[in-house]
Structure formats: structure tokens, C-alpha cells
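ZP: hey, is the pyridoxal-5'-phosphate complex queued? I don't see it on the tracker
AM: it wasn't, my bad. submitting now with these inputs:
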Amino acid sequence: MIAQRLIGKQVGRGAFGIAREVKATEKKFGKDSVINSTLGTFFCEDEKLGVLELVNKTYRELESPDIYGYAAGVSGSAEYKEAVKKSIFGTHCEEIVKNSFVDVASTPGGTGAIYTAFKGYGNDGNTVLLPEYMWDAYVHITGANRLNNVIYKLFDGNKFNTKDFSEKMLEVVKRDGRVLAVINDPCQNPTGYSLSFEEWKEVVEILKEASKYGEVILINDIAYLDYDFRGRDNAREYMNLFLGLPENVLILFAYSMSKSFTSYGLRTGAIVALSSSKKVIDEFTVVAEYLCRSSWSNVSRGGMALLVKAYEDENIINGINAERDQWVEILKKRAEIFERKSEEVGLAYCPFSSGFFLTIPLEKNKEEIVNDLKEKKVFVLPIKNGIRIAICSISCKKLEILPKLIKESIDKFNK
Ligand SMILES: Cc1ncc(COP(=O)(O)O)c(C=O)c1O
């Protein structure tokens, strides 16, 4: 019955599937004896979902029409679009907006932004470059939009693999006259890697080189932007490199309020286009609105109103940032524990900089190892070529013992 293009498509069990098993084990043995590393949401040290208090207060104080009414404008209100720009570009906002063309369309979370980017800029059969370790939704969204994907190697030793990224990008653009590429940065899901400013410079040179052969669309997924251990300003410094690019290079930011504003369930995000060409952005404005109307129509008015209110009042946004910064400190501590304990037992992990996750690379016997960990009441997310450790959701106390448990399970199967 199902449409031809969807035959065989499914999301698999993923994190949401395993969550049910975790709940059942917690119920049987108590929460203290279970380590749940499956979900990508921030949990405080008491293992309760982290909700930024000032975000909650600001949302609850919104007027009823601001929550229950339809959004003003299919692709979001003008105020929301301004707030999104401030949220993405931070202290660089004025300079970036003055020296390029930028427009915004609201989307249901970062997922909606990725969907719009692929749907809006991928012709049937085009190829999207995706990182070797990645958020698996990218693959599903290419699949739902009749796009192919090619995987680029993420690392060369401890660094971003600019060579492989460049080779793959040139190969595709020379063949198709167009290439789309996703870089999830900073705080990549699932490795926690962040490109340095120098590495971004190299990436921008690659985009320029590729643009000699066709259209280049870079999708920069910034879902974890506000959790960068380098601090808010440093995390955004690379964005200035996107100014003055050739007119056939388009930068699309996939923006999400889910993590930065702990608004996972409000489903509010945006796709933000940046270009040197007014024509490219005018076209984006019209088509992004069309894509909103022809899919979800418009997004949560309350979610958008929350961001607007936060940026209208410096005290609110500064307060939210300060609260979140305390969590960044907790994440730093958790990462330090995990790294130290891993080194003690000789557990290898992918290059890590900051954010919610780390990755243990694993080529062989993944299923056996994941099942063995379950026996010890440890639930980790199996991903392609590895397992993901969600330091965002594990307390410091549990992280002290986790590397040893993982190492023992690996050693049991991979001698
Ligand atoms: C890398 C990455 N991008 C985007 C998203 C989108 O999240 P949302 O649709 O909730 O904004 C997520 C969520 O887990 C993610 O991990």
C-alpha cells in the first residue's frame, strides 16, 4: 500500500526504543543501580531532566494568545527571526548581518531545519556528504527526500579529516554540479568534537575550491552550540569566515531551541540562510515559506514567543545563559571523569572537545558488547562503528565506574 519511495524505510529502535527497556529495568532494580546513557537530553546530578528555571518562568508568564494562537507569519514572526539571529551569531551578529544577506524560517526543531535544507536544496538523486559518526536522523531525512549520501571520514588522528572531506566534496560536485554537506559543529553528536578556527578556515577554502565546479550547500548543524566548553564567544568565532564567499556557496544553519533553551518538546527551531547573494536569499525566503506551508504550516507560537521575550530583555537572556553555563561546568566535570577513568583502564574514545556525548569506536561484536552491558544494567546507544556515551544524562558518580564496565565488556568479546 505504501508509496514506492518509502518501501523498506524505517527508523529502527534507536534511543527511544531502548528507553522502554531502561524504564523497565529501573522499575525492577531501582534507578541507582541502572546507568542510562541512551538519551540526548541534559539530566542534572539528581538524574532529573534539566529544565532551565528562567526559561520555564518566562514561558509560563507568556500571555495566553502567545501560546495558543497561530503564529504570526507562516515562516515565523519578524521578532522571532531577529531573536534567532542574535541567538546564533551572538556578539558577531551585527557584523555578520551587515556584511552578508541572511534570512530565517522557523521550523519544528533542528530536525525541521535539516528537513527543509535537504528538501529545499537537494534535487532528486543528489548527494549529501555526511560524517562517519553522526546523528542517524540525517540518513533518514536523505532517504525521505530521494537523496543519496556519501560518508566522509571525520578524523585524521586527533584532527578533522579535511583531506577526505575535500576529496569527497570535489568528487561529488564535479560529477553532479551540486553538492550538499553536513557539518555538525560545535560539539558534534556523537563524538563531542569541535573544529578549531584553523580547521574551519581549511573547510572554507574547500568550499571555495568546490564552488569552481558547481553549487555548494553547507548545512552547519549547531544544535549544541551553547554547550561548547570554549565559551559562547569562541564557539561562534568561525562564523565570520562565512562572509564574502562566492555567490554559489550557501550556508544553512540548522538552529534548535531544544538543547540551548531546554525546549525539546516545544519543537521550535529555524533554518537560517547566509549568502553573499541577495538573489539566493530572496529565493530562500519565498521557498522556505512555501516548504513550511506545504508541510507543518507553522511552528509553536509559544516556543517562538519564549525566544522573543528572552532576547527583548537583557536580564532574561543573560540569566538563562548564566544558568546554562553552570551546566556546562557540570558537563566539563563529567567529561573529565570519563576521560580520566577511561585512560586508567585503557578504554579508547574518539577525539573529544565538548558537549553532550563521547564515542567509543567499535568495529566488531557491537551487539554482543551492548547486550553484555545490559546484563550489568548499563544501557548505551549503539551507533554505526561505535557506542555513544551520553555524559549529558549520567551523574558524576556513575561516570566514575562506567569506563571500567565498558572496557570489561569489550575485552570479553574483542581479545
Ligand atoms: C546533531 C543534532 N542535530 C539536530 C537535532 C535536532 O533536535 P530537535 O529537532 O529536537 O531540535 C539533534 C537532536 O538530538 C541532534 O542531536
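AM: back. The domain at 4-53+317-413 is CATH 3.90.1150.10 (Aspartate Aminotransferase, domain 1).
ZP: great, adding it to the tracker
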